[in-house]
Specification:
Layout: H1 2-69
């Protein structure tokens, strides 16, 4: 009878240890997931801004080319 109680007690303590370790592991996983989510959002924001910057650069390049083609005053 004592061995049954010892086995049940040992099993209960083991189960409690596993549950505690699992909850801590889950907390670490949740924290990492939140950090990765934040990084992905920042990257997506950057990825949305790049095409806008490319268009602005093309427009500035066209304006510069147009200014270079215009005849200017004679240089001394």
């Amino acid at each position: 009878m004592e061995t049954i109680w010892a086995a049940l007690l040992s099993g209960g303590v083991t189960l409690a240890g596993v549950l505690i370790a699992n909850s801590r592991s889950q907390a670490v996983t949740d924290t990492k997931l939140e950090e990765l989510t934040r990084e992905v959002r920042a990257h997506n924001n950057f990825a949305q801004r790049v095409p806008v910057l490319e268009e602005k650069l093309k427009a500035a390049d066209r304006r510069l080319s147009a200014l270079e083609r215009q005849p200017g005053p004679p240089r001394a």
